[in-house]
Specification:
The protein is an alpha+beta fold and 479 residues long. Helices cover 46% and strands 12% of the residues. Keywords: Membrane.
């Protein structure tokens, strides 16, 4: 059979003849994909001790599920690569008995590393898609949870699962995701980020158009809202769509706290992101063109801090921004303990040395450090990278046109966001198009009793989550 000929050059392909009680058979498998204990404990004793005269009889006595008999060579090749054992009555004959003996080596479920929370569940996804689906099944214990699997990648044949809740999710969203993934033509799919880049509505946008999370509780909650999840085997992160810009600044911890406290934290995050993007460009614009905007008491302090600094504000700002980015990249690429030391010691040494050497002013150093600190408040790592990048276009336009340049850059940014979509849904919803009903969980989070309806932009089959009249009769747990 040509299937075996293709594998003979691989040293981990095993094929040998085995004598049984009354028949000879050929056993073939890929050693690195097969659990040898399953072969030795559940298959070989049956072959040697039980009486059988055909593959049909052998199928009945082997105590393993998922056993099939096939004459399709494509199925045989696929099953070999999935960790199945092939049993033939002759070396190259058909049909074949295909027995599942896949080895399961995966990291244990551990704590979230990116979306860590003080309260709430402490489980995070791992690299095994089977384990990840199990984590979702435990939380969405309902027959309506629908999982559609396919293989993507001409070489990798990576397993991808699309999750949705039947009767809730909009079928158009589900079919859009399935069709876009089917249209992918790429040799290697190593992570969910590959899928995100290939099926986004606008691949040239720096903004992520799928929510990336490592928390099973967040995925199960979002699936209940009517969204679609995408799991990739080998990736500990799950993609969720369609999504909106506001969701990237909403931590799942917000739902574990009192709604007043959660709303306060969410507003702080939104302010911190705005501060992180605008503070350095505003410093450059004001010191370059608009001295009259500075209060007289503060003007003296600024003049004193810049006395002896030979660089113009733009070069001073770009220098410090690049130093911060270098420290951040160095800390991320080095081992954990070394990276933390480099970040702390490097920041202190370089910041102090640059001020004492007269390269930068101490006020700008404070602004840049606060901007870097504010950028870390984003709960989703992908949007944090976008925020870091946005500062540089604002800086350049602030140099050329002052405050007017910042306004122009903001207009370009808003135009891009207004045109951006996620699975065809507006990315700026509920800001644009304005939807008052979805504002209950946008800039602030209202009590659960106010969330009787699912987000309007999802066009779910069941817009109502529960009866609002019944909710008013009973006080909410966080009121």
């Amino acid at each position: 059979m040509q299937v075996y000929a293709k594998f003979r050059t691989s040293s981990d392909f095993i094929q040998y003849e085995e004598d049984t009680n009354n028949l000879k058979c050929w056993i073939s498998y890929i050693r690195t994909l097969v659990d040898i204990n399953t072969l030795q404990q559940h298959i070989m004793p049956i072959l040697k001790n039980e009486k059988w005269s055909s593959l049909e009889e052998l199928k009945k006595v082997i105590p393993i599920e998922n056993i099939v008999i096939t004459i399709d060579t494509d199925v045989v090749m696929e099953k070999l690569l999935d960790g199945f054992i092939i049993i033939n009555l002759s070396e190259y004959g058909l049909p074949c008995l295909v027995v599942k003996a896949t080895i399961n080596k995966a990291r244990e479920v551990s704590l979230p590393e990116v979306e860590f929370s003080v309260v709430g569940p402490k489980e995070a996804f791992v690299e095994s898609i089977e384990s990840n689906i199990n984590l979702i099944r435990k939380r969405v214990n309902n027959e309506k949870l629908r999982i559609f699997e396919m293989n993507v990648g001409d070489l990798s044949k990576t397993k991808v699962a699309i999750l949705s809740v039947e009767g809730v999710s909009d079928e158009q969203n589900v079919q859009t995701v399935i069709q876009r993934i089917k249209d992918i033509h790429f040799d290697q799919i190593s992570d969910s980020s590959f899928i995100s880049q290939m099926i986004s509505d606008k691949t040239t946008s720096p903004f992520p158009q799928f929510l990336d999370t490592e928390r099973p509780d967040r995925v199960s909650s979002i699936l209940a809202e009517g969204k679609v999840g995408i799991m990739v085997d080998g990736s500990p992160h799950v993609l969720i769509g369609p999504t909106t810009l506001i969701e990237f600044f909403s931590a799942f911890d917000d739902y574990f706290y009192n709604w007043i406290v959660a709303s306060f934290f969410r507003l702080i995050r939104l302010f911190a992101v705005s501060f992180s993007i605008l503070i350095t460009p505003i410093y450059v614009a004001v010191l370059t063109y608009h001295y009259e905007l500075i209060p007289s008491d503060l003007l003296g302090t600024l003049i004193a801090s810049r006395r002896g600094v030979p660089l113009p504000p733009i070069l001073e700002a770009i220098f410090l921004e690049l130093v911060i980015e270098l420290l951040r990249e160095a800390g991320a690429r080095l081992p954990t303990k070394v990276g933390q030391t480099i970040g702390i010691v490097g920041g202190i040494v370089l910041g102090t040395a640059s001020v004492e050497a007269g390269i930068t002013s101490n006020i700008l150093l404070i602004f840049v450090a606060l901007a870097a600190l504010a950028s870390f408040t984003t709960p989703i790592y992908a949007i944090g990278n976008t925020i870091r990048m946005l500062r540089f276009p604002f800086l350049l336009l602030a140099l050329w046109f002052g405050v007017l340049g910042i306004v122009i850059c903001f207009c370009f940014l808003m135009t891009h966001l207004l045109r951006l979509t996620s699975l065809g849904r507006p990315f700026l919803e509920p800001i644009y198009p304005p939807r008052t009903i979805d504002m209950k969980d946008a800039f602030i989070r209202l009590p659960f009793s106010f969330m009787s309806k699912r987000p309007q932009q999802l066009r779910t089959k069941r817009p109502r989550r529960f009866s609002a009249n019944n909710a008013k009769k009973h006080k909410d747990i966080d009121e």
